[in-house]
Each structure stands twice: as structure tokens, then as C-alpha cells.
Amino acid sequence: MIDLNHKSGFLYGADAPRPPIAEAVSAAIDTALSARNRAERPRTYVSSSGLGRDCLRQIQYDFLAVPKDEGQEFAPRTLRIFEAGHRAEGNVAGWFRIAGFDLRTERPDGRQFGFEALGGRFKGHIDGCFVSGPVAMDYPALWENKALGAASWKDVVKRGVSLARPVYAAQIALYQAYMELPAPALFTALNRDTMELHAELVPFDAHLAQEMSDRAVAVVRGSEAGEWLPRAAAEPTAVLCRGGMAAGKWHAPCAWAKRCWGERR
Predict the structure, then answer these.
(1) How many CB atoms are closer than 10 A to CB 102?
(2) Phi, psi of 73 (to 5 degrees)
């Protein structure tokens, strides 16, 4: 029963206070996740997963492992989401295999399939490759999977991955090109909230793959020459820097915005 007596401490519409054990458990896990993330060695290559971002300088900061702005490291909640997405990939792969698909996700030694170029300074690792299956489609075909929150998932279902998440589309095109898998890729998106699975075929976009490959070369060559690549924004108040929606695309806040603009306000 709700206690509405004076000084009861009850606030209508407010969340119930978390018990001390919940706070203690969350704090212990968050501390451990953050420590593990800080201990991981930074990547020393341009990753295909981020080349579709609009700003070349942001990609360059990531490639050079430039320290992020204070407070811009991944929050523990985000780290949990990343890990849940990685584990969801294994679940979806298992569902495909139960359904009769021949899906290859790793080499005999347990490593992911992938590619590297530019002397190892440009790399990508694929989720898997369909060799055969009970569904009429072209084989072999690249498989790319994402686990998304409900709002993002609905957007992908409504508009398709190429429009809703162009960064994913760029990643797919690069994999198709470098892994020599020109057949339409099967992209799947798992709704983390409802466990609904969306699937769509993504035709190979050779122009997009070439554009992204050229971007990787520009990042590596510019970094070797000690040159900062141009920003994609003209002002630090741009959506690309502060984050938000623009032209139907969501942009996460840039983790290097203050450094990039020299603490300019």
C-alpha cells in the first residue's frame, strides 16, 4: 500500500529507491568492466567497422589511439551493451544452424575470418559466411549481424540498413569486396528488447566499397605524413561533434570534440 502520510518519503511518480545490495553489486561490476576496458590494448589499424563515419579526422583519432576527451570513455552500461551484442551474435548463429544453414563463423584455429591491407594497418573481421541453406538466395554470402535497441531496430526494419545505418552498410560493402563475396549479403538485426529478428539482403555496392577503401588509405597516409585530415564540420556546435540527429542519421557525440577544437566553446 502506498504511504501518503506526511514525512513518509514517498514521492508520487518517482522510482523506488534501489536497495543497498543492488547499488553495491552494480558498483563492483561497473568498476571491473571499466578496469578491463582500460587494460585492453588499443587497435593499431583502421577498422572497417568505423570507416562509414562522416568525419575523417575522427577516424584518424581512433586509428592513432589519441586519448579521448575527459569523461568520453565508454560508460559501464555501454560496455555491457557491447558485450551483450557480441554474445547475441553467437545465439543468432546457433539459430541459423538449427534451421539448416551451413554458416561458417571461424577458422579451424578459432580465429574470425577477415582481411587486412596496407601492411596490416587496415583490417576487418566478418561475422560469418553462409555456404548453403534452406532459403533461396545466392551462396556463398556474407553474414553481418547487429543487436539493436528497440528504436534503432524499428528504424532499420522501416528504412533498411543502408539508409538507417550507413556505417553498417559501408562495413558490409568493404567485407564483400575484400572477402570476395559479391553476392548479396544477409544482414540480420536482433531486437534486444523483444528478441525479434530482422533479415534483409544487401546487394554489393562496389562504389561504396571503393570509397571506403580510399578513406582507409587517406587515414593511413595522412597519419604517416603527420597531417591532420579535414573535419567534416565547420563549427564545434555541429551535430557531427555534439551528437544528435541530422538528415535522418544519428550521430554519437564525438569523443575527441574538445581536443579537435582546442577546447573552443
Answers:
(1) 13
(2) -70, 155
Handedness of CA 75, 31, 153, 204 (dihedral sign): positive
Tell me the mean pLDDT in the region 56-81.
88
Query: Given this model, what pLDDT does residue 13 score?
Result: 54
H helix runs in 99-205, sequence order = 150-159, 161-164, 166-178
In contact, 47 and 123? CB cutoff 8 Å: yes
What burial letters (b/e) apply to 12-27, b meaning 16+ CB within 10 Å? eeeeeeeeeeeeeeee
Res 110: pLDDT: 84
> How much is the pLDDT for 82?
78
Cell numbers linked to 211: 570509397
Question: CA 133 to CA 90: how far, in whole Å?
Answer: 18
Other CB atoms within 10 A of residue 55 CB: 21
Query: In this structure, what C-alpha cell is assigned to residue 113?
Result: 575470418
Predicted confidence (pLDDT) at residue 2 exceeds the cutoff of 60: no
Q: What separation in angstroms does the CA of 148 have from each of 81, 89, 151?
A: 9, 11, 8
